[in-house]
Amino acid sequence: MEIVMSIVAGVLFMAGTYLVLSKNMIRIIVGTSVISHGAHLLLLTMAGLKTGAPPLLGLEASNYTDPLPQALILTAIVISFGVTSFFLVLGYRAYKVTGTDDTDGLRGPDAHD
Amino acid sequence: MHMINILIAPILIPLLTGTILLLIPKKITAQRTISIIAGIVLIAVNIFLVLDVYQNGIRTLELGGWTPPFGIVLVGDMLALLLVTTTSVLSLPVLLYSFRSIGREREKFYYYSFYYFLITGVSGAFITGDIFNLFVFFEVMLIASYILIVHGGTKVQLRESFKYVLVNVISSALFVGAVAYLYAVTGTLNMAHLSERIGSLDETVPILTVIAVMFLIVFGLKGALFPLYFWLPGSYAAPPPAIAAIFGALLTKVGIYSLFRTYSLIFVNDTAFTHTLLGILAGITMIAGVIGAIAHQDVFKILVYNVIVAVGYVLFGVSVLNDSGFNGAIFYLIHDMIIKAALFLLVGTLVFVAGTSKLKKMGGIIKYYPALGWMFFVAVMSLVGVPPLSGFIGKLLLIQGGANAGDYWLVATMMISSLLVLYSMIRIFLNGFFGKPTLERPDQFSTAKGLLWPSALLIALSVLVGLGAELLYPLVDIAATTLLQPEIYIEAVLKE
């Protein structure tokens, strides 16, 4: 199962990298989101996908899944959610001010000139 | 509050200050008063902590009472506390400069809150003893920096912050990936526990070398190491000088500190490969940075490339893995934080009075602003490392460390690049302050006066660090000894 998930994470990283290298702002932002998904899936996979009960003591199972990576992913998800929402607003504002969503269109003389 | 909890104060004070300032966005006088008071309290607490660690050894704080490696532990060793103290000491003059320069509109939009959240992130990253908690503090610092870099929303800021956020989002995803691999191999996230587990291995483990290089890429992206520094010149030249000063002084330094910590504590399994790689990259960083500094005609760009050169110097000290190298790297890191903040403020003032950042368009400014001119001269001498000033002792120890390790090529590269740094900065002095006067706006005399005091404070601090090197040396030596002997750190944290 770990091998399948590693391949899936690899595909997510690949797709994210492809999107980030494009010129369109929204594609870039979606790309960073996909890369974050890849990283979270990698974190879950690397900790091991052995079968066990969900980490709830009420279930009284003989073995549980590792709770630590789940806590780490939960933290990483909210951080990437906050950053992505900021990034989207930033892209929107840049589009409003510069009038283009093409990253090449962002080039121009500096304010210090 | 028990005395043992005081180690959390460098994180808690700026966090609380930032939160309180969120409540009173329109009351600028109150915001300024609260931020000044908090800054002074922070400096006092940090100096107390440094003296405490000097007398009693490493101070640790187990959050929630969970013993490491099971809970998060804060570790105040000498290196972390020296850097936290330097952070708080230099952030106060930059805050004073903000009062004069940042403008009402920005002040009303939570500028001081995010300033303090940035300091929260930086202090937390220095003090934490857990690798995932380091990631979280990196994000606290970065999110505050995203907002500060775009604060005001000019066109150039929007463009540069889009790049800056993109680069940092990707490096954060890589950080999570690297932590995932490290957890899979070792099964722990506590730095001392990681060090113990990896240090007890007898042979080199290739996967650990791969993970070490992954962390080099992650922290190299944050700390602007060659070839990962491409984002920095544009980003740091975009925001106003006060924000650029705090970025230039703190942000890359957290990346360097993290490399320092991981490459001295955790990844000591295959130093023949990892530290040689670090040394080579540090050497190229010095050259690449100095080429940029010479090539540019824009005073901000010249200074920004000098930030990159300093990254090379400090990491060269880390790569040699001996006592003088580590001492030199720590001295140079502290010196560079102070002097870069001072130079950004001085160059910001220079651009303000000259009305342009183009070197070719300015000249003869020393006639109207002699204090600014001579302060800039002293700062440049300190940056380059002229003996009585703070840059000297760090470079001397770095050269000694490099020579002891037999890295003569790197020592030569460093000395040549120092000379070129002098050339790049003295060009601003000769061209901007002397030469044909072009100043057409002498009406700004009075407004520039208040901008000079904060830079004067920072330069005085740099002179004090240079003259008081004898007093500072024992502290730096303790920090270097702890780094060279991870057992001290492990014992303090895991209490075996």
From TrEMBL, chain A:
PANTHER family (alphabetical): ANTIPORTER SUBUNIT MNHC2-RELATED
Protein source organism: Alteribacillus iranensis
Membrane topology according to the record: Multi-pass membrane protein
Keyword Transmembrane: yes
Protein name: Multisubunit sodium/proton antiporter, MrpC subunit
Main location (coarse class): membrane
Keyword Lipid biosynthesis set for record: no
GO cellular component entries: plasma membrane
The entry's keywords: Cell membrane, Membrane, Transmembrane, Transmembrane helix
Top-rank lineage group of the source organism: Bacteria
Transmembrane segment boundaries: 6-21, 28-49, 69-90
Stated family: Belongs to the CPA3 antiporters (TC 2.A.63) subunit C family.
Localisation: Cell membrane
UniProtKB/TrEMBL annotation, chain B:
Keywords: Antiport, Cell membrane, Membrane, Transmembrane, Transmembrane helix, Transport
InterPro entries: CPA3_Na-H_Antiporter_D, NADH_UbQ_OxRdtase, ND/Mrp_TM
Gene Ontology terms: biological process: ATP synthesis coupled electron transport
Topological category with respect to the lipid bilayer: Multi-pass membrane protein
Domain of life: Bacteria
GO MF annotations, alphabetized: antiporter activity; NADH dehydrogenase (ubiquinone) activity
NADH:quinone oxidoreductase/Mrp antiporter transmembrane domain boundaries: 130-420
A Pfam family this chain is assigned to: Proton_antipo_M
Record's subcellular location: Cell membrane; Membrane
Cellular compartments per GO CC: plasma membrane
Transmembrane portions of the chain: 6-24, 36-54, 74-97, 109-128, 134-153, 165-185, 205-230, 242-260, 272-295, 302-321, 333-356, 368-388, 408-430, 451-476
Classification via NCBIfam families: PRK07691.1
Annotated family: Belongs to the CPA3 antiporters (TC 2.A.63) subunit D family.
Protein name (Swiss-Prot/TrEMBL): Multisubunit sodium/proton antiporter, MrpD subunit
Organism, as annotated: Alteribacillus iranensis
